[in-house]
Amino acid sequence: MFKTNVEQNNVPVFGSFESGQDLPEKRMNKESVDPRIAYQLVKDQLIDEGSARQNLATFCQTYMEPEAEQIMAETMEKNAIDKSEYPQTAKLESSCVNMLADLWNADDSEHYMGTSTVGSSEACMLGGMAMKFRWRNAARENGLDINAKKPNLVISSGYQVCWEKFCVYWDIELREVPMSEDHLSINTDIVMDYVDDYTIGIVGILGITYTGKFDDIKTLNDLVEDYNNTHDNEVVIHVDGASGAMFTPFVDPELEWDFRLPNVVSINTSGHKYGLVYPGVGWILWRDKEYLPEELVFDVSYLGGHMPTMAINFSRSASQIIGQYYNFLRFGYDGYRQIHMRTRDGALQLSQAVAETGLFEIYNDGDNLPIVCYKLKDDANVEWTLYDLADRLQMKGWQVPAYPLPKEMGNTIIQRYVCRGDLGQNMVTAFKNDLSESIEELNNAHILYHDVNTSKTHGFTH
Ligand SMILES: Cc1ncc(COP(=O)(O)O)c(C=O)c1O
């Protein structure tokens, strides 16, 4: 435990009394530490975490320009929930909602609603809850016995864990449409077999976390349209666009996946993914207030005004919202498009390099979303695995995950690169060189042992 050593406050950091000891872990130190020394010690403690920009495992933003960092640092103390205290911040938040509504082609004749969240997980919870409450109200009106069965949510088995959490927290049956080698996104041939009167909604994923593949939301919309024409219980679609909803509008604006499709009632995204903001911001919008039951909108009055809120969380810093607005203003539509096109070009170069080795089968080449995903060909005839390749790349500073696909595809091990805006051309070239060197090194390695049945997850947490 630290002891006060006032005389040493002015000595160089590496000569300080505190730097001669381990950092406290189990109990808080009794005496204070000089801020300069505390800063250095904490910074040093984080030294072996790897370089965020070489982390191709995360979807989350790892670079913002200095002016963005500055405005975010200067607004860290603002509490986003204090909308009456910080009305200009609240206004920036609703401007972001307006811009997203425009980007996602909300219909002028409807009354969209939306809010910022901590990330897509909170946004998905809100989207799911809105579907559940709306289903329950409608089911009661239709005379359905709502206690006879658990309500259910239909989604492909490539869902992100937030949907499992949603179903556990809110007591919903998670109905998974299985993936297969032929259907690496939602299988539209069978999805409607999973729907019944107790279905609160179907989730379409614009950017499956595991592979980057897109669900075919347009076909899903048509299927739902047909279903709704012949059933009392109206089924709706929520689009989990955690990554795609801030990418596709700029890069493939013609692709119909959003509010242009009448049965898509809500969309979420992560501002901290292709919205290009540091972690801590997500968004959800409903195409019309009809799809956000009133029970979920709370009136907060004790902060000095009356403000509607629809968040699970309460207090958090507004700086990420301000960072999002900064980006919208700074880049504009064209800027986002240029950044994303460049990122896509980097991803396409990487998938081409992967394909040229002849060893891998590509699942996603980065054209829809800059995610490159592949497996080792069955006849690759190498002694190493994707886990070994991940280790080799890590020796060169790159964090690249290898992991099994979910559920029924659990025997398929894949590797994924998430390309982001800060992966410059020089880094793409460096990665390609490191990849071919790593393969060469593995081909020449002699001591390898593998327990054949081991399928583990290496660096995949998103
Ligand atoms: C499809 C999908 N949904 C939801 C999430 C959760 O997002 P967040 O980290 O913003 O909570 C992710 C994260 O990777 C995702 O890929």
TrEMBL record:
What are the entry keywords? Answer: Decarboxylase, Lyase, Pyridoxal phosphate
Cellular component annotations (GO), alphabetically ordered: cytosol
Q: Which GO terms describe its biological process?
A: L-glutamate catabolic process
Q: Which InterPro entries does UniProt cross-reference here?
A: Glutamate_decarboxylase (IPR010107), PyrdxlP-dep_de-COase (IPR002129), PyrdxlP-dep_Trfase (IPR015424), PyrdxlP-dep_Trfase_major (IPR015421)
Cofactor(s) the protein requires to work: pyridoxal 5'-phosphate
What the entry lists under Gene3D superfamilies is as follows: 3.90.1150.160, 4.10.280.50, Type I PLP-dependent aspartate aminotransferase-like (Major domain)
Report if keyword Lipid metabolism is assigned.
Answer: no
Which EC numbers does the record give?
4.1.1.15
Lyase found in the keyword field: yes
Enzyme class (EC, first level): lyase
Q: What chemistry does it catalyse, as a reaction equation?
A: L-glutamate + H(+) = 4-aminobutanoate + CO2
Task: Give the superkingdom in one word.
Answer: Bacteria
**Where is the PTM N6-(pyridoxal phosphate)lysine found along the chain?**
273
A UniProt-annotated Pfam family: Pyridoxal_deC
Which GO-annotated molecular functions does the record name? Answer: aromatic-L-amino-acid decarboxylase activity; glutamate decarboxylase activity; pyridoxal phosphate binding
Family assignment from sequence similarity: Belongs to the group II decarboxylase family.
Tell me the NCBIfam families matching this sequence: Glu-decarb-GAD
Protein name per Swiss-Prot or TrEMBL = Glutamate decarboxylase
